[in-house]
Structures are given as structure tokens and as C-alpha cells.
């Protein structure tokens, strides 16, 4: 590609609404252009990257035996009504009426349509297993779109759906996809981690998320460096930090803690470790049919240095629809405002759940349900009835790994892929069956597998940038090599050598761009460093006099001189070095 | 590709709603699957074809110097409001509100968004010319979607937009696209014709449509076999069929024509040629501000054997917003119901427009504005004031070509491409300017260029099918070659030879499918004939004993035997023969 036949448009400054580095750099490099809130034009420079990502995804999906198709962007509501997601999906799903007043969905995902294809196309066990995928435009009407392609409303997703005859088959299909995803992210040249995940609203049994590792990532990834344990924060199991409960030694004693509403302050005041304190979190569950009479307050107890895990909390029987209690509810049930709450002497009966660690604590400090007072020396069994025990906290670095093989570490990640074992949740709702060997209809066992294609661009940048701009992995760089001639219009030698190298690289199948715009060297170099092309060759009269060209890798601090005759082989060896064994 | 790793799903019968052959065959061949009215899943077999079409389009667009990008499916209304098309587009354009109540368009086309990109990205004449294109999902809420991919609501379109500094540059860009389209349809292996077209609602000056020739086509294409004149019916110029007007010979005479309301019947009753009669068409134009007082009726006169051309009619000054008159309006203005209308003795004054041919007629027959009566011997100037003259009829086969080089012929076509010279209609509305050499802002000169990617599938089939199924041109067949082994599970020789040929074809870069499903030969052959793969190799024990394989081209009536050792070269020569010189 010659730069004058392409469209390059870089900016010195990022627009004010770009908050994170990937958004800023993509805007500055002219890869995307904002059209509306969370809606972007993919400019030529950006689209090249998207296509490269898509191609890697496509190749690995095909290699894993998945078959590509394409489901529509606009989907009739009736399919979504069958599974109930027409009502459940909420405002994230954009809905539209046609000229006849019929309802449609702008697809946020495609389980329903896929299941409809399967229930009509799959008749016999002989057609199984099968895995369909598509790479398609999705739309989710985010409440607060931001971060460029990281949380845009219109985006490109690869979603795949596997169909099997039984759970064992489904798990095999799931593993195939897990392995394909691993190869995809390897080939994308990204540092990533797969973690066990919660299934969320999509239903089904098991799932894993694939995260690109980046300090700026929104998600906390929990892993054990000494084993293969890895989970996201929502799913990572918190083990009791005390193996067993010590015997009570202290007396229960109400202690004045004026103005000390936080565990940290109480511990400091009483000169005890924060680990000796217990914090109270109050939740409300309403039984809508019974109204006020059906309202129940729950008190969840965590060690003072721990944080509540809201996903785990929602899985406790009875807490599926919890919300945090309001201050007036707390006063009504506890007789005191937040800050001094505890399990002892509540005004009205509450249900108590203690975190696994709290359940093993003895002689602990908790609120006295009276402003400016805490209890010290509190003990289970003696002062408070034995509580319901559950894992309700976020793990922290240094916790023992749940597999017993070391301690946990935490790093930040950006979710770019998710694989789910759906089981029969959709096939049951939509009556998607096949005939088994005995001619008996059986529900299809499903899995679903998503990759956020456009989001990968943002994640790759968050992981790979420096003060000059983006540092693309070679496999998804918009161009692998840029040739920057110095004074091509003045020097016949530069012109000849530039053209020769350009043609040689093209002939060798290298994705090369020749910057024939005639820009000043400084501006030209700055553009390509911002855009992030991994390999740069500078051709100038000075070097040519010695038969040399200048090479600079995007991560190199110093350029090296390479003989003209060796540059092609040199570039090829650089590119080969970038390849990941497939 | 092995058939067992792909998804093949053929039907014996087409669904009842499939009216035309391409729709029926695509459904039966499992290429598309209906999801809703005018909305289809592209199944794996269909998507392969779409991708091949897209790739040919992409390659030729790139070769012509166009740059690929991607504009969003969901576009903020504000851009469409700027050009007024938010109001003008009508119900064909689907509109949607987001969670904040803001208006969006599901794009039916992208002139507005493209012009917005241009006005911010193009700053200087040095950036011109530039041509951006994208291949993207479009949605048009057709009142009556039908014919499968021929008139679906969701479809894939390639749309390109060129930007130039002056009209001469714009015409150069237009010609580049015209030539690229010619190469595209050549490479698609389709018989096609480019015809001059009316610009329609999109605005601007010149345009051409590209049509796939097919007897079932909706459009009439006018062309001159002795020259390069070609236009669609809307745009084809009708020349006067009488070079000059003869002198009046007959007297004007009111003649009883009881019950003869049609020219054909009147001509038969009076025993005169139909070409001696004149038919009346009455139009109404309302000046909305003046109400009833602003209503004007127009009488358009055509020779009895001619038909009105509604597009040409709308271009007559004053007739831009015409409608056909109601019966009550006709009675009010003419004093008689339709059937006996004419230019003489109307009850109220009407504006008269005569077709070019009618204007040169003498001694003609027309209605007398009295039920059951016609005038014979009517003459311009003598009986009726000289009329306004215009080309308002559809041409017919045998008419002289407007270029004077022969006579016109008519064939049917399916529109698959359209190129437009837009000029400054959009850049003016959206203030899209660039700075010229003198630093003065100038309006961008635009062209736009569309290809209906998914529609091409339907059109290709309408042109290429037989009683067994589809006959794809090799360049867009889902597979170029199918290998049908006979009894691969029984015969080691068949298995070995099948695998050898399959691997050899793959290694040679041939897009081959190996039908390893184990179907009966009859069912297997029927499937591939229905699907329309152009080259078939059958491998069986009987042939192998003689060292032969059986080859059948999709259009061949008889198979030929080819030595095993020569089959690869044989297939390659067949495929090379299919190539169009690019």
C-alpha cells in the first residue's frame, strides 16, 4: 500500500471526551472517528486492524470445526419473547417497531435466533455435534458509553453456539472452544489469562472469561502463581482465613467508640488489629406480593479488612433479589443509623450471614446497635447464635488458594472473551430438540462463546503503548512494515531503492506501507510511531552511500544499519520471530 | 472442506412464500433461512457465496483506488436532519429511539455520515480526490418484502463515496467507478448491462444502473444493438415517431363510439390503425397553500399504443408533485367520466401536454368529452391550440435510437449496481468544504456508488439455473469443485484415491468440498446439482479399475472419463477457462 493511496489522518491532541489511553491513541491515530455517543466510524486505519483480528478469529474457529454463518442485526421480537428475554433484558437492548408496528430487537447477542435455527435445522443425532458462529454487528444501549471501543454501543462480536446430544458432548465442545480461544489470543500476540467466571444472566452451568492483562483493566483477576487456579473476582472462592474458631477468652463488653463509625477507626481507637473487627452490611429483600409485611432485612458480616462480593451474595438462597437497605430501614430494624450496627440486640429480628472467616473469629469487635458504641469480646454461640455461614467476600492477594497449592495473586484484566456452558436453558425454553438413536426427542445441549472483536483493539493498546503511541503486536498491526524514504523527490537513488524494497516486500507477502506523502522526517516518524507499525525502514542518501538502510523496531531504542542487500531477509526474520507457533 | 465438517441442509420442496426461482432455489439449497418478513439468516452455504462476491467487489474497489472503512449501522438522526432526509425518506427508513429518547436511523444508505466524515477529515485540496467505501448491513423497511434476497429488508450493500475538487474531477472519479463496476460484474461471471438512469430522489446530475440480464427481471432495459446507447425505461428518450406533422385533410367530426372507452376498441370500431388514436391521461397538481383554488388539472396526450412514463412526467415544470386525477375531479373539469376525454371542449380549462409523437399527428381521433362520443379528424392549430410538447412516453422496441444509429431493443434486467454523480447536493446541505490553492473554502464535489451484494446472489440465480437447480458462475460458487466418492466406506481404493485428489486440489488452492457424508449417489448428486457447484468428480471402483475418474461440468449433459493422473490438471484447466481476464 502506498500512503498516498490510503487515508492517514493523525491528530496532535486527543479529544476531551477520551479518558483512557487506548481511546486517546485510537482517536489520535485516526483509527476511529466518533459519530455519536458510543458509536464510531471505523476509519481505514482502524478497519485494517479489525479485519486482521477477525481473520485470526475466523481461522481458529474454522480450525476448531465451527461453521460460519450470519444472523441478522434486526431480529423479530417473537424469538426473544419465547425465552422471556424480551422482558428481562432491560434497556441495554434496543427495540424498534417496523412500519406495521411489529416489534424487533437490534441484536445484543443471538442465542434466541441461533436456537431457532437449530430447532428447525437439526433433526437427528447424526447431525451432532455442530457449532455455528458469526462475526456480526451488535448494539447495546449502554447507560454510559465511554472509553472508545472498550464500551461502545455499536460493536463487532464473534459469537458461536455449539449443539450437542448430551452434557459430556457439550463439555467437549466447550473445551474445543476454550482451546481455540487460547490459540486466538496467542496469535493476537497478547498477554492474557483465562479465569473461571460466574455465569451471570445468560444462564447455564460453567464458564470462563478470557482477559487481556492490563494495569488499566476494569476487572480483578485472581490466580495462583503456584498452580493453575484462576478465577475472576466474582467467582474466586474465599477460604476461611482461620482454620478453626478459638475458644472465647474475653467478656462481652459495650465500649464507647464515639464518632468511630468505621472498623479502621475503631481498631485504631481500641489499639487492636483491624482483623479483630467485624463489619456489618445490611440488605433488604422484598416479597412483592406481601408488600411491607414481606420485607426481610439481612445482616451480612465481614471481617473489617474484607469487602463484600455482590455476586456471591446474590447466590445465597433467598438473596437472589437483594438490594442494599435504606437508612430508614436500618433505623427501623436496628434502632440506630449505620456505623454502629452488629448482630447483637437488633431492634427487630434480622437474618444473619457470616463470612467463612468471620464464623471462625473469637473475641471480636462489632457494632452495638447504639450510636457511638461497639461490643468487644463478642463470641459466636455464647453472645450470638451460630450464624449461617457463606463465602461472601472478595478474596485478597495473599489469601490461600482454594486448591491448597499456594497463595493467591491479583492482577487487572480487560474481558475480551467469554465461554459458557448453557446446557438446556435455551433449548428448553424454545423446545429445540433432536431425535436420538431411538427416535426419541431430546433437548439440545448448548454452549455459547463470545469474543469482543472491536474491544480487542482497545485492550491490545491498553497493554501495548508507550509515550510515542501504540505498539501493535505484529499480527494485528495495520501494517507490518513502513518504509520511510528521505527526500524521494530529490534523490534518484532513494527513489530507486525505495521502490525496489517496496516491491520486494510486497512480492514476499509482507503487509508493507510506503510513506510516499513527502512529509518531513520528523512528522513522518511521529505518525508511524503513533500508529504503532512494528517495523520501520528509513531509506536515505547518507546510508545508501555506504550501502545501508536504517531499521528500527517499534520497541527499539536505537536504530540499526542493515546492508541494502540483506534488508528483505532481515525483515522476514523479524516477522518470523513475531509468529506464534500455531 | 469436508462435507461432514460443514453444514448442508437441502429441501425437496421450497416453502410456499417463495414466488420466484432464485428464492425457491436458495431456500431449497439451504443458503438462506427466513427469520422474519424480509429478514434472513445467511446459512453457511449462502455466506460462502456472499463472501466471494464481497471479495471481488473489494478487490476491484481497492484496485480503483477506493479506501475501505466502516460506517455504523445505527446513525444519529441529527445528520439526517441536516439534509432534510430525516423527514423526506419516508417509512422505508427505520427509526429508533435510545434509552434517553434520542432519535437514530438504522442506515438505509450513508451519504450523510460520509459527508460528515469528509467535512471534518478533508481539509485541503491536497487530500483530493478520495473515495471511501464500506460493505455494510443496510435496512429498508419495504412495504412488501419478497423474492428472498431480491427485496429483503436487511441486506448487504457496498456503498462508495468520492470527493473531488471540481466537476471534472468528479466525472473522472465517476468513470473510475463505472469501469470498476464493469470489471466487478465481468469477474462475477454475469451477463450484465449498464444503462443511463434517472437520478431519482438521491439528487445530483448523472447516473448509470448496472443490471444483471434475466428474463424475470423487474426492470426494462432499453438499448440499441447497433450502437452503445443504453438507458433504463425511465430515462430512455422517446423520439417523435413522425418526423413532421402532415397537413390536415379531414374535418373535425363528432362520432358515436358507444361503450368504446379504450383506444383499441375505438380503432376497431372505426376501422382505423391504433396509431391514429390519442389517449388522455389526467393529472392533478395541488398548491397546498391555496387549497381548492390552487388545484390545476393537466391533460397528457399519448398515441393510443403508447404508455405514460411517470418519471419523465414528473420532470415537466409544474408537475413535480403530480398525482392521477380522481374520477370526481375529471367529471368536474371535463364534464364526463374517463373513457371519452380529449383536449377539445373541456368543461374547465386544463393544461395540455402532448407527447412528441402526438404533437406531429394530424387527423387523429380523441375523446369528445361526452360519454360515448369521440372526435375524428382532430388537428392541432385548427381545432386545438398548439400544445406544450414533451417526451412523456415509454419507448417501445423498434423505436429509432435517440443517437440516430439504429432501432431500440428491450430486455429485462435486475438492478444490482448504481453509480451517481451527486455534485454538491450533500456537501452544500452539510457545509462540507475544503480549502483550495488560494485558501478559499470550496464545496466538495461528490459521487456515490452502490452495489447490492446480497441481491447479486438472487440475480445470478435468475440468470443461471436449470431444472436441477442453480448453476453458479465459478467465481462465486460456494465451492468450485465437489468430489463425490462412491462407497468410500467399502472400498479402500476409492478412499485412497478420494483423499489423494482432495489433498492435491487443496494444495493447488482449489476451493473443493469432499462429500464424505456417505449419502446415496442419487441424493448426493441431486444435492450438488441443486447447490450448483460447477465441477463434479465422481470416484468409484468401476472407473478406478480402468484408472479413470468421472468428471461432469454443471452445464454438461454427459460425463467424461479422465485418467486419475490427469484429473488435477484437467480441473485446473477448467477453472482457468472460467477466469475472466482481469
Structural class of chain A: alpha+beta
| Through-space gap between termini of chain A | 27 Å
Name the beta content range of chain A.
25-35%
CATH architecture of the largest domain in chain A: 2-Layer Sandwich
Q: What is the mean pLDDT of chain A?
A: 95
Helix-strand layout with pairing:
The structure is a homodimer of 582-residue chains.
Chain A: H1 21-28, E1 32-36, E2 39-42, H2 44-63, E3 67-68, E4 74-76, H3 77-83, H4 85-88, E5 94-97, E6 103-106, H5 111-121, E7 130-139, E8 154-164, H6 167-187, E9 192-196, E10 207-213, E11 219-223, E12 230-232, E13 253-256, H7 263-270, E14 278-285, E15 296-303, H8 310-314, E16 323-324, H9 327-334, E17 351-355, H10 356-359, E18 364-370, E19 373-378, E20 388-390, E21 409-423, H11 425-429, E22 433-435, E23 441-443, E24 445-452, H12 453-463, E25 465-466, E26 469-470, E27 481-485, H13 492-507, E28 512-514, H14 521-531, E29 535-539, H15 541-545, E30 548-553, E31 560-563, H16 567-578
Parallel strand pairs in A: 3-7, 15-17, 17-20, 27-28, 27-29
Antiparallel strand pairs in A: 1-2, 4-6, 5-6, 7-8, 8-24, 9-10, 10-21, 11-12, 11-21, 13-19, 14-15, 14-16, 18-19, 21-24, 22-23, 25-26, 29-30, 30-31
Helix pairs in contact in A: 1-12, 2-6, 2-12
Main location (chains A, B): cytoplasm
Pfam family, one (chains A, B): HGTP_anticodon
Subunit structure (chains A, B): Homodimer.
